[in-house]
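User: My advisor asked me to double-check a structure prediction for DUF3667 domain-containing protein before group meeting. I don't want to rely on an old file, so could you generate it fresh from this sequence?
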Amino acid sequence: MSRSLKKCNNCIQQFESHLPFCPYCGQKAGDQLTLNVLFNNTINNYFSVDARFFKSFFPLMLKPGHLPKQFVSGKRLMYLHPAQMYLFISIVFFFLFSFVSRKQVENIDSAIKKDIEQSHFYRDSLKKVSKENPTEKYVNKSDLKNEDSLRLRKQQLVQVTDSVQNVNKSSSNSIFNIDINEMEIDSMIAAGASDEELYRKMGMKTSDGYLTKRMYKQILKFFKTKSGGTILQAFLDSIPLAMFMLLPIFAFILKLFYIRKGKFVHHLVFTFYFFAFLFGVFSFLVIANLIWKDFPGWIMTLTMFSAFFYLFFGVKRFYDQGYILSFIKSSAISFFFLSMVLPFAVVIMGLMAFLFY
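Assistant: Sure, here is a fresh prediction for DUF3667 domain-containing protein from the sequence you gave:
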C-alpha cells in the first residue's frame, strides 16, 4: 500500500506525509509562520545557547583542561564550541574594556595638550632669559630680605633654564632616521604652509619608499592634530584581530612541546578554551575596576598570575603528564610566548597603529 508524499518547503525534498518532520533537513512539516512560531523559536534558540554557555563557562573557569579534553574525546553537543566560546567571551571583554580605553584616550590627549602649553611657556621664558640679564631680573640682592629668598630665586631660575634646554633638545626628533625640528614645523603649520612644503622641510624625498612616505604623512598628521589618543585608540582597535592571529601561534608552540600528543587541531582546541579563560579573567578585572575605583593592585597581580597556574593544571589534565614535567613545560611555554611572541606582536601592532591611524 503506497503512502502519500508531501514536499518540504525548506529543502524541496519529498517525504511521507505522516512524518512530523522532514527527514532530510529536520524542519517541521506544514509549519506555518505565526507570531507564536516566530518568537517561540527565537526564545528557545537563545536559551538553548545560553544553557550550553553556562554548562561550559563554569567548567572553563574552575576546571582547567576539562573542556578541551571532553571536546577532543567526542563530547561536543553538551558544551559550547571552543571557537564560539572564545568569540563570545572576547566580545564581552572588549565591550567592557571600551569604557576604560575611552578614559585612557582622553587622558593622553589632555596630557599632550598640557605639555604643549608648558612648552610654549618655556619657550617664552627662554626668549626673556636670552634678552635680559637673568641675574638682574631674578636675583637682585638688594630686594632680597634674607638668604632663603636668594636661594629660592636661584632655584627658580635654574629650573626655568633647564626646562627650556630640555624643550630645545626634544624639539628635534629622530624617528627611523627622520630628523624633524618640531618648532619650525609648528610655525609653518600656523602660517598655513602646504603639505608639500612641510614634507620638504621635514626632509622627505621623492625617491623615498612607501613606508617612509607613510611615516612622514603620519608624523605630519600628529603635528597637526596633537592627538596621541587617536594612535592609542587605533592600537587598541587592533588587539582583537592580533589576539585571534596569536591563537594558531600559541597552538603551534603547544605542538612543539607535545609533538606526540595529538594533531594540531587538538592543540588549537586547548588554545581556544585557554584564551577564553584569559578573557574571562580580564573581564572580571575590568568590571572590578569600573565599580571599585581603588581596586587593590595586589589582587589584580595575583589574579593575572593565576593564569600561569591555570595553564599548568590545564596541560597536566589535557596531556596526561606528571606534575613536574607539566610544570616545566608550562613554564617554558609561558616564557617563550611572553618574552618573544607577545612583545614582537605588540611592536608590530604599535607600528601598524601609527602608520594607519
